[in-house]
Amino acid sequence: MTPAAAIAVDAPAAVAAKATYALEELTRICAASAAVSYPSAGLAASEAAWRLFAGEDGRAPAAGDDGLVDFGDGVADIVMSTFWHLSRWEERPGSTRDERGRFPAAAALFDPEAAAADRLVERFRRIADAPRPGPLTVALTHDIDTPWRWSGARAVAGAAARAKAAAVARRPRELARELRGLAGLPRHRVRGTDPNWCFERICEIERSHGGASTYFVLAGHHHPADGAAPRVYERVRPAVVTQVLAQGDELGLHPSYTASEDFGLIAEERARLEALAGGPVRGVRFHYLRHDAHTTLPELDRLGFAYDSSQGYADRPGMRAGLSHPYRPYDVAADRPLAMLELPLVAMDATLAEDRYLGLSADDGLQRAVATLEQAARAGGTVSILWHNDRFEPAYARGWDRAYDRLLGWVRERGGRLCTAAEAVGLDAGAMPRR
């Protein structure tokens, strides 16, 4: 194991902890062992950045070259640029939010698909004479929003209504999909199966590539966005947990839609899931990725979670913090890093496929996901991807099951590793690391 580098920071008290944190993350990601100082000949300091992070009025930051933040004084400050990215400074209260209360990629200063903070890591690696990046690691994850499609008469009526709307609007592909699904309903009823119950199929694909995955399961319904059939979810949840654990995969918590605002729900839902699992649930991904980096993540840390993997964008693939590596989020209010890790979510099927986002075909979506993972591979990154369980039934998949299979094949051909989220952040079975 590479020994930690000695870090020396000579900065005003208001920014010293922030600079130290950024240097700690850079040295850890790079596995650097040489002593580093800030400021120094290799690590210039921007006094404009210091004033900004000390709370003084100043010019709004602008996007610079190679991941650097332009703080207004022309100084290429790698350390404070890293802090800006990883602290999610641009997501502080008052920043832009979409209709679901999320900070969108459209409001970000840097293009998430450009992996801006990875460029800073590259620069620091050269300065610190750190070793070359290692192979790519990809955590395979699934959010179980709707484990059972045919939940009752309303679900069937909804499918029929969607088919009718597609016919009226002359959307033949959508119409064909809904009609194929309805045609398969009698078969599923006879067999006691369901189009969304695809755990075995997912497992088969992943094991064929030497991978395993993490399933984030809802344990509470408090809002219409949590799903139209809470009683059905309640009934099948024990079977979901049993299936996931029997496959040798990881179980994670999918906090409900309003849990990011009502922290009591997070603890309540974790307890419910742990009671079914008979053991600790260590990881989190919020439903709809709906959370606040500056309030929700510190609460997860307080509750003792080991990692979160909600820091992705719904409207674009790419790296939300510009980084292809797990990192400790920063509690700006307490002026300290959290103990838990953030595992970047860089590609999601819904982002690629759904018309409200990019609306790509499965083939085009695959290429977009590959391009994002190629960025992570060049950085020797460790990231997560998300494919929902309702993308694997032939009647509804529209090719996204094959795209997932091919994406995993690409990772393996690239020399990458496929694993659970817990394995990606370095957790041993049953362990919960705390700093």
Strand-helix topology:
Layout: E1 7-9, H1 13-30, E2 36-38, H2 47-53, E3 62-63, E4 69-70, H3 78-86, H4 116-127, E5 137-144, H5 153-168, H6 172-183, H7 185-191, H8 199-208, E6 213-217, H9 230-246, E7 250-253, H10 263-277, E8 283-284, H11 296-302, E9 307-308, E10 330-331, E11 336-337, E12 341-342, E13 345-348, H12 349-353, H13 362-378, E14 382-386, H14 394-397, H15 400-413, E15 417-419, H16 421-424
Parallel strand pairs: 1-2, 5-6, 5-14, 5-15, 6-7, 8-9, 9-12, 13-14
Antiparallel strand pairs: 3-4, 10-11
Helix pairs in contact: 1-3, 3-4, 5-6, 13-15
- Biggest β-sheet description: 6 strands, parallel
Q: What structural class results from the helix and strand content?
A: alpha/beta
The residue fraction in helices comes out at 40-55%
User: What is the molecular shape?
Assistant: elongated
Description:
The strands form 5 sheets. Strands 5, 6, 7, 13, 14 and 15 form a 6-stranded parallel sheet that branches. The chain has 3 domains: 7-127, no CATH class; 137-149 and 196-424, Alpha-Beta Barrel (TIM Barrel), CATH 3.20.20.370; 152-193. The two termini are 17 Å apart. It is elongated and about 70 Å long. With 435 residues, the chain is of the alpha/beta class. It has 16 helices and 15 strands. Residues 429-435 have low confidence and may be disordered.
Which key terms come to mind for this protein?
435 residues, alpha/beta, TIM Barrel, six-stranded parallel sheet, three-stranded parallel sheet, 16 helices, 40% helix
How is this structure best summarized?
By secondary structure, the chain is an alpha/beta fold. The chain contains 16 helices and 15 strands.
